[in-house]
Amino acid sequence: MIEARFHGKNYRSEKGWEVEDDLLGGKAPLTDEGKEKLELIKKEKRYLSRNDSMNLIEDYYDASTAEHDSDWENDLHFLLAEELGVENSEIKIYNATGTPLDTFHGVDFYVQFSGHTITVDITFNPNKASGYKADVILYWDPKIDKVDNFSQYESGLEYYARLIANQFKKQITYNSKTAYAK
Predict the structure, then answer these.
(1) Domain count for the chain
(2) Cα R_g (the chain), whole angstroms
(3) Is 45 left (phi over 0), alpha (psi -120 to 50) or beta?
(4) What is the span of the domain harbouring residue 94?
């Protein structure tokens, strides 16, 4: 698991969901059918595995509303592509807030590239530093905002992009070595 420090913006309170909504542009953008399935799952208090949770998101993700939902997500997407040396279209970022992936598995969003997935949890809770569920934990500082402290915001976002890109590079290298060992 990787630890990072996130430089967010000022919030009315210290509620994690406010930060997630702001950074990711609201709850996971699902189609109407996906929202209905999600409501049924919540109503039935049904548990979904990590894979089933990701399948729900990917099967019902509303890409038309997901594009450019937030400046933060767009900036991260651009910087990730730059770090990996690929086109933006080769990287997918899925917002998982408000879904079973968030509720049961502690993942606010995940990134897919070249057949690999990196999960991310955005938090201000220092107790998530060790043994938590996501691949990358991003800590935010509510005292720093994008407008008043843009250079800190930008350097923080570049740092996260580098962390996530390095996780992908490790996965790809590991899988290449494993393939040769067989």
Answers:
(1) 1
(2) 16
(3) left
(4) 2-181
